[in-house]
Amino acid sequence: MPKTLVSNAATLGEALRKRRKAMKITQEVLSLQTGISKPTIRSIEKGKETAHLGLVLQLCNDLGVTLTFETPDSVDRAGA
């Protein structure tokens, strides 16, 4: 899967929707496979900012999506 820059809930939701469609899985089938309701999947895919992080991470995992956390090289590590 190509890398996608995720800067907000909307871009993450769009990336998950594209992955689901690439796998030829409907929201209904994904709901049955994951135990996450169709309305919740729909909300996540539409970029709902108040979606539960645990459900978003479960959906990523179930779709085979890996999230990577990167920090800019210019971050002052002494201030962290």
CATH topology, by name, is 434 Repressor (Amino-terminal Domain)
Strand content: under 5%
Going by CATH, the architecture would be Orthogonal Bundle
What's the CATH C level? Answer: Mainly Alpha
Q: Mind explaining what this structure looks like?
A:
The chain is an all-alpha fold and 80 residues long. The protein has one domain: 434 Repressor (Amino-terminal Domain) (Orthogonal Bundle), CATH 1.10.260. It is 50% helix and 0% strand. It is built from 4 helices and no strands. It is globular, with a radius of gyration of 14 Å. The model has no long low-confidence stretch (mean pLDDT 90).
In short:
The chain has 80 residues and is mainly alpha-helical. It has a single domain, classed as Orthogonal Bundle (434 Repressor (Amino-terminal Domain)). The chain has 4 helices and no strands.
Give the key terms.
single chain, 80 residues, mainly alpha, 434 Repressor (Amino-terminal Domain), 4 helices, 0% strand, globular
What layout of secondary structure does this protein have?
Layout: H1 9-22, H2 27-34, H3 38-45, H4 53-62
